[in-house]
Structure formats: structure tokens, C-alpha cells
Amino acid sequence: MMSAKRKKYPPELKAQIVMQMMMQEKTTAQLSDEHHIHPNVLNRWKSKAICNFAKLFLDEEKEKNKLNSQQKDNEHRELQVKVEQLTSQLEWIKKNHISNVSRKQRISWLEQEHPEISLSTQAGLLNLIRSSLYYKANPSQKKSYIKKRIMEIRDQFPQVGYRKIAELLREDCVVHENTIYKYLKELDIEKSPSTA
Question: How far is CA 88 from the centre of its chain?
């Protein structure tokens, strides 16, 4: 004995019948007789439709979320490209421009009270070490003493050069003659007439 093949109904027909059932245009029995479908099958379709109503709206919401997600991904990619571009431009500027400017000039560009860019960030952009910005060199007492002694020796012996001054200073303290030469330049003392 062969079993009967199960009938398959198109989704459009199912939707039409379920809508008629829900709108109560016809009873389940009338629809069953009209379409030659068992009432239990029709009730099952109706239950399934009611259970899946929420999915209709969920699918719509998922579609919106998917579009929003794609939009956000596109914006993120665009921003990422822009960040990479700005980073490479900044590196180029730092390499080609800032390296040609003196440290003193770069320090003068710093804005201590800038509302958006911290001092640390500014220092990084200008290739400066932030901790060095707070360092104030204080002349040591020894340096002051040596400069004072150089002046005294030059007043006493205007003809002597930096080597002789170093020799005379060695009686008081140990100083290399190159240091004396440097201090003479700092003090802006002219060379002695004999060496000129």
C-alpha cells in the first residue's frame, strides 16, 4: 500500500487564508471546505503566524541595525584612513621642518596654557623632551668664582692669554685651559694686544 503524498501549499496561499481567519471574514470550517484543507492544519498555520509576528519586526530591526553597522564601519574606515594620512603628514613635517629649527626656537613655540593640546603632546610634536623644559641651569658657585678670578687676573695682567690665566688659576683651583678659553668668550673679553 502506497502512502499518499503530502500536499504542499505556497506561502502566499497560507498567508491569505491566515489573514481571512484573523479578520474573521470566514470561519475555519468554511475556509477548510473552500480550500480542501483540514481545520487542524489551518489552526496550526494561524498559531505559527501569531508566534512569528514578532519576527517580522525583529527582521526589520535587524535590517536597520545591519545598515547602521555598515554605516558605522564605513565611517570608521574613513576615519582610520584620515588618521593614517594625518600621521604620515605629521611625521613628514617633523622630519623635514622641525629638525631644521633650533631648540630655542621650538621652545618658544610652546603654549603652556593651551586648552586642547597638553604640554607633553606639544613637546612630542616639536621633538623636545618634556622633562628638559622644566630644567633651569643655575651657574655653579665654582663657575662664578672662576669667572670672577679671570676678571681679576685680566685687570692685573691685561697682556696674558687664556693659557697663562689657566696657569695662574691652578694655584686656587684645577681648571683646564679650554674652560678658561670658553669663559673668556662668555665674558666677551677681547684677546690681549700681543696675540692679536
Answer: 13
* Whether residues 129 and 153 fall in one domain: no
Closest-CA residue to 149 (of 113, 131, 175, 127): 175
The structure's pTM equals 0.33
Contact 143/187 with Cβ under 8 angstroms? no
CA-CA distance, 111 to 125, in Å (whole number)? 12
H helix intervals, 24-161: 28-35, 39-51, 53-96, 103-108, 119-125, 130-133, 141-156
The pLDDT tens digits for 73-123 are 899 999 999 999 888 878 877 776 777 788 888 888 888 888 888 888 888
Q: 42 exposed, middle or buried (CB, 10 Å; 0-12, 13-18, 19+)? A: buried
Q: Is residue 163 part of a domain?
A: yes
Range of the domain at 150: 141-187
Instruction: Tell me if 179 is assigned to some domain.
Output: yes
Residue 27 located in a structural domain: yes
Tens of pLDDT, residues 11-61: 888 888 888 888 888 888 888 888 888 889 888 988 888 887 777 676 677
**Contact between residue 107 and residue 128 where contact means Cβ atoms under 8 Å apart:** yes
What is the C-alpha separation between 172 and 71, in angstroms, rounded?
79
